[in-house]
Amino acid sequence: MRARADFVRSLLVSTPAGTHVAPMFDRVHIDEKWFVVNKTKRRVYLTPTEPNPQRHAQHKSHLPKLMFLCAITRPRVDPATGASFDRGIGIWPFAEEIPAYRSSSNRQAGTLETKPLPANKETYKAMIMTEVVPAVVSKWPAWGGRHIVLQRDNANPHRVVTSADLTATMVTTGLSIMVECQPPQSPDLNMLDLGFFSALQSEQFKRKRAALTSWCRGFVRHSTISPARRWITRSSLYNT
Fold first, then answer.
1. Distance CA 228, CA 61 (A)
2. Which of 64, 160, 181, 234 falls between 20 and 30 A from 24, CA-CA?
3. Alpha-carbon Rg of the chain, whole angstroms?
4. For 64-119, how does the pLDDT look when each residue is reduced to its tens digit (9 = 90+)?
5. Class of domain 24-38+64-237
6. 188-238: per-residue pLDDT in tens?
7. What is the C-alpha to C-alpha distance for residues 191 and 88, in angstroms, rounded to an integer?
8. Domain extents for the chain?
9. Rounded CA gap, 86 and 92, in Å?
10. Residue 62 to residues 42, 112, 203, 221, Cα–Cα distance (Å)
């Protein structure tokens, strides 16, 4: 509880008008989560003449799923030009596409298939250094601040990436990036856990179920919006 209070206190800004929470435009929230292709149970409304929808799976405990790493930042508007920045930084699956070794009734040999990768220290660091950091550098608005904080939780694989690793890659970009861990047992201090992930999963459930490869590509394509209202909700948590 004390670590949580200290973290919130570090984000307070004192002005002549009073003390308020910093806008946190310099923060990029990163986290990972398992997303499933389909629910184990669904409720549907049918007319008397409609047939029951057919769903097939090997077992309800073996539904296709993938872990994604997501990075988002707060939407903003340039007061000078009116330019807006409301997109997320990106979302990437812990997966790789490899050609099928043999033919089957569903696909030919050589067809690219999506295979999950383990989310360990090696794959996490590779994802941060080759995907997240380049995406932050390329999408960060030119009129934004030059200092960026990557906020993450305290999972063991996350500790392999340090601020020194990121500083070495930022020499020629003009940006300064550091990592910061949020307090333990405080998922509500991360925008992704506060509501973005659950909203994203609910939105995907509305879409037609597809093969894992096409579902993965569609998931990435429709997961780039970072609604501003959720950031306001997050700021209100600091008042409690």
1. 36
2. 160
3. 21
4. 888 889 888 888 887 777 777 776 788 888 988 888 888 887 788 888 888 888 88
5. alpha beta
6. 888 888 878 887 887 777 776 666 766 776 666 655 555 666 666 666 666
7. 11
8. 24-38+64-237
9. 18
10. 16, 21, 21, 25
